[in-house]
Write a structure and sequence with these properties.
The complex is a heterodimer of chains A (113) and B (115).
Chain A: E1 3-5, E2 10-14, E3 19-21, E4 24-26, E5 31-38, E6 44-50, E7 56-58, E8 64-68, E9 73-78, E10 87-95, E11 101-103, E12 107-112
Parallel strand pairs in A: 2-12
Antiparallel strand pairs in A: 1-4, 3-9, 5-6, 5-10, 7-8, 8-9, 10-11, 10-12
Chain B: E1 4-7, E2 10-13, E3 19-25, E4 31-38, E5 42-51, E6 54-57, E7 65-70, E8 73-78, E9 87-94, E10 105-106, E11 110-114
Parallel strand pairs in B: 2-11
Antiparallel strand pairs in B: 1-3, 3-8, 4-5, 4-9, 5-6, 7-8, 9-10, 9-11
Classes of the chains: A mainly beta (113), B mainly beta (115).
């Protein structure tokens, strides 16, 4: 069965620190990859997505992610986090075969000033 | 204006009660989904519908039913609510005509508490 693993469950950083959140998936076919963010008390918002082409994807608010097909990974990065980045981050994978979106369990990020 | 709306936004109910959560969308999308979010478990798919006459079970459909009343409306029902159905419920939509770009768009969520 398809699955998505987010290895970091809770990350605590100071402002200006660099961020990398891991995401690995188990599926060998063609996939679409997403990172969603959920700010406290709010709904899911799309941060960035990969469908095809350049494996380095840039999203909103300075976030980027790199798709490494050989490693089945789609890690999220930001060079310098801000207090306003405090949120929960979800990686999600959609396979062309099933057309279902599978979510990871989420990573809670806390950024302190 | 919100493209995907959910009502109610919050609901507290008692064990055994019937509850309906509603989702409406103005995006013109043909596909709609219901997820529940639990702490530490991420979002899990309950039901999905690829068009008005198509309803499919997701990974956790037990205890739930759905109705696709129109392309724009997709309701989730708990026939007899139980405490472990306390969760945040999200509706989502996507457009099958956008081949290779089937991003899902989420509603604001319904927080359901079953006492």
């Amino acid at each position: 069965a398809q699955s998505v693993s987010q290895h970091n469950h809770h990350v605590i950083l100071s402002e200006a620190a660099s961020l990398e959140l891991g995401c690995n998936y188990s599926y060998g076919g063609t996939v679409n990859l997403f990172w969603y963010v959920q700010y406290p008390g709010q709904h899911l918002q799309l941060l960035l997505k990969y469908f095809s082409g350049d494996p380095l994807v840039k999203g909103i608010k300075g976030f980027e992610a790199e798709f490494i097909k050989s490693k089945f990974s789609f890690n999220l990065r930001k060079p310098s986090v801000q207090w306003s980045d405090t949120a929960e981050y979800f990686c999600a994978v959609l396979s062309y075969n099933t057309d279902k979106l599978i979510f990871g369990t989420g990573t809670r990020l806390q950024v302190f000033p | 204006d919100a493209d995907v709306t959910q009502t109610p936004r919050n609901r507290i109910t008692k064990t055994g009660k019937r509850i309906m959560l509603e989702c409406s969308q103005t995006k013109g999308h043909d596909r709609m989904y219901w997820y529940r979010q639990d702490p530490g478990l991420g979002l899990r798919l309950i039901y999905y519908s690829f068009d008005v006459k198509d309803i499919n079970k997701g990974e956790i459909s037990d205890g739930y039913s759905v109705s696709r009343q129109a392309q724009a409306k997709f309701s989730l029902s708990l026939e007899s609510a139980i405490p472990n159905q306390t969760a945040l419920y999200f509706c989502a939509t996507s457009d099958s005509s956008r081949s290779g770009n089937n991003e899902q768009f989420f509603g604001p969520g319904t927080r359901l508490t079953v006492l």
